[in-house]
Amino acid sequence: MPRRRIGFWYRFAAVICKPPLVVLLRRDWRGIEHIPAEGGFITAVNHNSHIDPFAYAHFQYNTGRVPRFLAKSGLFKKGFVGAAMRGTGQIPVYRESTDALSAFRAAIDAVDRGECVAFYPEGTLTRDPDGWPMTGKTGAARVALQTKCPVIPVAQWGCNELLPPYAKKPHLLPRKTHRVLAGPPVDLTRFYDREMTAELLKEATEVIMAAITRQLEEIRGEKAPETPYDPRRERIEQRRRTQAQAQTQQNSGQTVQEEGLGK
């Protein structure tokens, strides 16, 4: 399957975005040899800054295989940004609607056409306190198992030092380095031709996330936590803590009231 041409809109976006990225960030990019030269594939990338999609797109643009990102549908609707999103072939995600699955169908079609679809399996910026990848969502695994395409795990670090997660102001000085390490394809063959159950997708996703985390360990020269941060589990724990605190306050109030009546 041949590669898709980069096209006018992607080249135009590169002309606009590359100069500030070159000024703001040094580059330490490795693993380019693992990006397939031909055919459809997926890259699975960690997400730790609002600007890392631009920096990562810069990395992959330089390989000649431009990524098609999944992005919020609202970005496609108006003005120059919408025109650029449509023109560069990004894939709209319609959350909480009857079109919610259309993004996955579009991703499958893009891979079948020989394109690269870039997934942020975490689905949002990491909430891990130390910036490690969280547990992943199953979209990348679903597309990978249906198409049997290569899945390239990619770790990046440095944009989060320029603009930390959920921060509003960048830390411009000293100049930061954008480090990227692309690894060899994740071996998902043991999941092929099996019923695509929730448990199977969860297991395949864990394999993908583990590969990304290993790449990030190499970049950072550190070991990641054995158990990835799980936002769902954290929300459950937070609710339990809130309920326990409320119950403690209620019991304390009752005790005070009873003591007052005893007087």
Spell the H/E element sequence.
HEEHEHEHEHEHEHH
**Percentage of helical residues?**
40-55%
Total strands: the figure is 7
Low-confidence stretches: none
Q: Strand percentage, roughly?
A: 5-15%
Calculate the terminal CA-CA distance, rounded to whole Å: 86 Å
Query: Main β-sheet: number of strands, strand sense, barrel status?
Result: 7 strands, mixed
Shape, per Cα inertia axes: globular
Please state the CA-atom Rg, rounded to the nearest Å.
22 Å
Number of helices: 8
Judged by helices, strands and strand pairing, the structural class is: alpha/beta
The averaged pLDDT comes out at: 89
Strand order of the largest sheet: 1-7-6-2-5-3-4
GO molecular function: 1-acylglycerol-3-phosphate O-acyltransferase activity
Biased composition (Basic and acidic residues): 219-240
InterPro entries: Plipid/glycerol_acylTrfase
Domain Phospholipid/glycerol acyltransferase: 41-159
